[in-house]
Amino acid sequence: MLSFTISLFLSIDGNIDAQAVIFLIFHDSQDLFYRNPFGAVPCGQNIIIRLKADTKIKVQSAMLRKWTDKNGEEKFNMECMNGNSKIFEVNIKAPDEPCVLWYYFIIHVSDRIYYYGNNSMHQGGAGEVYGHEPDSYQITVYKRRFYTPGWFKDGVMYHIFVDRFCNGNRNGEILNKKEGRIIHKNWNEIPYAAGEKNLNNDFFGGNLLGIIKKFPYLKELGIDVIYLSPIFESPSNHKYDTGDYMKIDPMFGDNRTFKMLCEKAKDLGISVILDGVFSHTGSDSVYFNKFGHYDSKGAYQSKDSPYYPWYNFIEYPEKYECWWGIDSLPNVNELEKSYQDFILFNRDSVVRYWMHLGCRGWRLDVADELPDGFLKNMRTVVKGEDQDAVIIGEVWDDASNKISYGKMKEYLLGDELDSATNYPLRFAVIKFFMNEWDALQLHKCIMSIYENYPKCVFYSMMNFLGSHDTVRIRTVFGEVRCEDVSKKDAGSVKLSLDQKILSLRRLKAAALFQMAFPGVPCIYYGDEVGVEGCGDPFSRGTYPWKDGDMELYKWYRNIISVRHRVSALRTGYFIPVYHSGSVYGFIRTIKNGKDIFGQKRENGFAVIIFNSSIRDKKQVNIDMNKWGIEKLHDVLHDNKEIRTNGGHLSVSLNPIEGKLLIGS
């Protein structure tokens, strides 16, 4: 809803309708005329910012109000330019230190003050007129020479929950069974839940040898990067309750097996990323040792423990700070020197040790819980070992302006993360293909991310449709409302035939979107063969090696192959060209042999367009004169040739369909 009151407009001269003033003052942060350059900028960058006011309004002055946390408020008078509309312009310089810069406009009209700021959705682009101080526009100012690894931008990632992927032992034996744990006898059984509670104490026997065994499968699918959920020793099946950071869980293998996995992966051109759980340990660990299972003096056992400073005890030893109140996950003091030495700085630190064995990067669990100081030190150590290693943060919101514990995080300013989990994009894509959002809503969400993120981060974002923390995407697209299903019934939820057909069509389209959009597509193991699951623990079921959906698998393999062949789909320019109703489309292009980062790449051009409507066919017309493309091929539908007519491309889209048209 537009933010104005009738009294705000009583001072407008002439016979202008009171509400019309909202159309007579304008700024669009995503239009190069109004802000140049677009989006996030490096430190010291000059930025031109413009505001338009119709000549029907007598503007006495316009001012830009800028804010940074370090320098506070600064105000700049804007110069009026001639024309049918009054264009007010100011040239500002981005700060010399990385930060988030905020701005809005103050306009004096007929002795009254108006404000123009960000829209009520805080998405950037066209803003709104306010009668009070408005929400600000954002400019992310990042460190000069900030870059993210090129190999990662080119990759397709595969997320493996190790216990549920594959048992690589010849006889199917389960290694080092844990006392008091449930061991499934049948690989195809449903994960166990005790009533409404997850105990995370059931095991199927997947291991590192199983991943090695399935390397040919992963290579055939087109995978370049595997991301492993935690693999260090711990009592649970999910391993987010670390028991020993220096040891592979014995049910998964040992440290030598991990080294062999990394070596074989490297030979196949596959990089391995580990899940770093550094905001908490397990209570059953070398470091806390609540149950005395380890031959160590844990913090729970004695205040003389070398690990005692790692933890925050409220009433020693039974009451302590823990992650989300879960007493099996005691929080650590990440800035404690001895903890940082152990995790980061020692010659044989946790991070260095596993990177020496072959790890190519880290996905940081609950990054919001990690202080900026820890993240900065993490980057220093990781990049010191391998400048091209990647650091990904688990962040569920816009990572450019995330506030955690009352402080804005500095994830994307150049000293912390290379990438983050792209939950905002996942949310938007699902909303679009579920017909809960139209194409314009999808477009606004995408452009907000594009505007706020440094370009090198935008092209490195971990773009996924499902994870171990979400309902399986096949189940989502089948319109199952898992939130309405009790835990005891959720394990038996299966899609009907009609739901399978509907979800297959949606997943094919969404997967194509994922492969064609800037960033690194990540497949949650089994999504490519239609695994279902109504949330944790049922979204963590086993991979169905004997009866997966092969039609879907072939689709994934095909679109991944096209992504690998066409450089423009990886680091080409991203240009939205259509967003109306149920149809969204964009172009990816490389011209003159240089990609968006100025790197040498093969020229290429692609139009990617989607219709999310369940019932309606759509005929879309796109002006191609700007691109000089006269002939395209529908590479996913028999390579059918499509020619432009009078410089216009006409595309017919069936219900729930995506098309990838490659131009020449």
Q: If you had to describe this structure to a student in words, what would you say it looks like?
A:
The chain is of the alpha/beta class and 664 residues long. The protein has 4 domains: 6-142, Immunoglobulins (Immunoglobulin-like, Sandwich), CATH 2.60.40.10; 154-279 and 334-563, Alpha-Beta Barrel (TIM Barrel), CATH 3.20.20.80; 280-331, no CATH class; 568-663, Golgi alpha-mannosidase II (Immunoglobulin-like, Sandwich). Helices cover 21% and strands 26% of the residues. It is built from 15 helices and 36 strands. It has an 8-stranded parallel β-sheet. Strands 3, 5, 6, 9, 10, 11 and 12 form a 7-stranded mixed β-sheet that branches. A hairpin with a 2-residue loop joins strand 29 (573-580) and strand 30 (583-590). The two termini are 44 Å apart. The model is unreliable at 1-18 (pLDDT under 50).
Short characterization:
The protein is an alpha/beta fold and 664 residues long. Helix 7 (372-385) links the parallel strand 22 and strand 23.
Layout of strands and helices, then pairs:
Elements: E1 25-26, E2 35-36, E3 41-42, E4 46-54, E5 59-68, E6 72-77, E7 79-81, E8 85-93, E9 99-109, E10 112-117, E11 128-130, E12 137-142, H1 150-153, E13 157-160, E14 182-183, E15 202-203, H2 208-213, H3 215-221, E16 225-228, E17 232-233, E18 244-248, H4 255-267, E19 271-276, E20 313-315, E21 319-320, H5 337-345, H6 350-356, E22 361-364, H7 372-385, E23 390-393, E24 403-404, E25 407-408, E26 419-420, H8 423-433, H9 439-452, H10 455-458, E27 462-464, H11 473-477, H12 487-490, H13 497-516, E28 520-524, H14 550-565, H15 568-571, E29 573-580, E30 583-590, E31 604-611, E32 618-623, E33 631-634, E34 640-643, E35 648-653, E36 657-663
Parallel strand pairs: 3-12, 13-16, 13-28, 14-15, 16-19, 19-22, 22-23, 23-26, 27-28
Antiparallel strand pairs: 1-4, 2-4, 4-8, 5-6, 5-9, 7-8, 9-10, 9-12, 10-11, 17-18, 20-21, 24-25, 29-30, 30-31, 31-36, 32-35, 33-34, 33-36
Helix pairs in contact: 6-7, 8-9, 13-14
